[in-house]
Amino acid sequence: MSSCNHDNHSGHSHHSAEEEVSEHETHDHSHDENKSNPDEIVLSPEAAEKYGVKVQTICRQPFSDAIKVSGSITGTPDDVTAIVAKSSGIVSFNNGISPGMKLRSGATIGAVTSKGFAGGDADEVASVQYQSAKKELDRITPLYKEGIVSAKDYNAALAAYEQARAAYSGRTSGSSIVSPANGVITELLVNQGAYVNAGEPVATLSRNSHLLLKADVPQKYHSRLSKVTTANFRPSYSDEIYSMAELNGKRTSSAENIAVQPGYIPVYFAFDNNGTIVPGSSAEVYLQSAATDSALVIPSSALTEQQGKLFAYVKIDDHGYEKRNVTVGISNGKEVELLSGIKEGENVVTEGVIFVKLAETSNVVPEGHSHNH
Predict the structure, then answer these.
(1) In angstroms, how far is CA 351 from the centroid of its own chain?
(2) Res. 57: pLDDT tops 60
(3) Is 295 helix (H, G, I), strand (E, B) or coil?
(4) Is-contact 124 192, C-beta < 8 A?
(5) Distance CA 216, CA 206 (A)
(6) What is the mean pLDDT of residues 221-235?
(7) How many CB atoms lie within 10 A of CB 261?
(8) Cβ(164)–Cβ(132) below 8 Å
(9) 169 exposed, middle or buried (CB, 10 Å; 0-12, 13-18, 19+)?
C-alpha cells in the first residue's frame, strides 16, 4: 500500500503485557486542563517504540474491488525434478525417507544393489576390468621404457586402463540414490525392495523455489476476469496476507473459457517462494484488477473488531491515541476502503495495535494529566 507519509515507531517485546504497558504509558507533561480529551489513550514514545507501535498517514490512492475466491498452492512443473537410479537393481531406501522430507543437494536417500541378478553387479564387473587393465599397464610400462614393447602397444594398454578406470566408481555393492538439488520429496515412485533399471526415477523432488497459485473463480465473475492482473492470498495455515507484487508473481493464464471444475474457472499465478509458503495448501484468494478509482485506504492490520463493530486507533500527538469507530467498504485482503471515522491526513496505528488496546484498557493516567489539541 502506498501512503502519503509515514511517522513510524518501531520495536518489539516478548514481555507479557498489560503490566509493562501500564508501566511505560505514563509521562510527565501537562497542558491546559480545560482542553484535555478524557478519551485519550496515553502511551509514551519510548513505550510505543519498545512495543513496535507503528503509524501510517491515511490518504487517497488508486484502489479497486477484489473478487474473493478459494484456491490452492502447488509447485510449478519446471520446479519438480526426478531422483533417478544410477544402476539397475533392488532399491533400499534409508530409514525415515518419506514424502515431505527436506533434502540438501547431494544427500543420499538410499542405494541400489544388483547382486544376485543375471549379469551381476555392473560396478563389480567394472572393478574386475579395472584391476585387469591396471595389471596389464603395470606389466607393459617397464618393458616400454626399455624399448622391448612398441609405443603402439603401450598406448593401447594405457587407453584400456583409462577407460576401465572411468567406468569404475570404486564401489562394488551397487550405487547410491542421491538428491540432485535442494528441495522436498513429494513422492516415492517405487516401493522398498522394488527392482529398477538404470536411469529410472525412484522419487520426485520439488525445489519449492517457484510455486503456482490456482484460483477457482465462480463463473458468474466471467466478465471481470479479463481485467484481473494480480492477486493477494492467505494460505490456510497462516493469518498473513501475501501479495503477488512482493513475491515477483504474475498471472500465467487466460482460461476464461475453460471450466475444469463444473461451475468454476481456473486462474493461475506463478510466483517466487520466499521460504514460508507451503505447496499443497489451500488459500483464500483476492483477485484484483488494475486500480483506477481513488479512495481513502486503510491497512487491514489497523482494524480491530469489538461487539460487531470495527475500530482503529488514531495517533493525535506524541503521547496520545484515540479510538475511532470506522466503517469500511471493499477489500483486497491487505487493505480496505475507508468510508467514515478517519479523515485524510490522520495517522493510524497499523502495527502494535494490541499494545495500544492494552494501554486503553489499563487506563493508567497520572493525576492532572491533560493534552492541548
Answers:
(1) 22
(2) yes
(3) strand
(4) no
(5) 23
(6) 88
(7) 8
(8) yes
(9) middle
Q: How far apart are CA 373 and CA 367, in angstroms?
A: 19
Which grid cell is 67? Answer: 473478487
Q: Are 222 and 265 in contact (CB under 8 A)?
A: yes
> Mind listing the pLDDT tens digit for each residue in 139-156?
989 988 888 888 888 888
Nearest-angstrom CA–CA distance, 186 and 165: 36
Mean pLDDT of 306-332: 86
SS3 167: helix
Residues 6+ apart with CB under 8 A from 149: 140, 143
The DSSP secondary structure of 35-104, one letter per residue, reads G--TTPEE--HHHHHHTT-EEEE--EEEE--EEEEEEEEEE-GGGEEEEE-SSSEEEEEPTT--TT-EE-
One-letter amino acid at 127 equals S
Residue 332 grid cell: 483486497
Q: Among 204-208, 221-225, 241-245, 338-342, name the most confident range.
A: 241-245
Specify the pLDDT at position 9. Answer: 47
Q: Containing H/E element for 187?
A: strand 183-188
pTM exceeding 0.90: no
Q: What angle do the packed helices 151-167 and 122-145 form, to 10 degrees?
A: 160
For residue 67, which of 213, 263, 254, 216 has the smallest C-alpha distance? 216
Q: How far is the C-alpha of 44 from the C-alpha of 365, rounded, in Å?
A: 11
Taken in order 272, 273, 278, 279, the sign of the CA dihedral is positive
Axis-axis angle for helices 18-25, 353-362 (nearest 10): 80
Q: Which residues, at least 6 apart from 371, have a Cβ–Cβ distance to it below 8 Å?
A: 31, 35, 36, 37, 40, 316, 317, 319, 320
Other Cβ atoms less than 10 A from the Cβ of 237: the count is 11
Per the listing, cell 586402463 goes with 161
231 near 244, Cβ under 8 Å?
yes
Q: What angle do CA 6, 8, 10 make, to 5 degrees?
A: 155
**What gap in Å lies between CA 373 and CA 370, rounded to an integer?**
10
Rounded to 5 degrees, φ, ψ at 242 are: -105, 150
Neighbours of 122 (CB within 10 A): 19
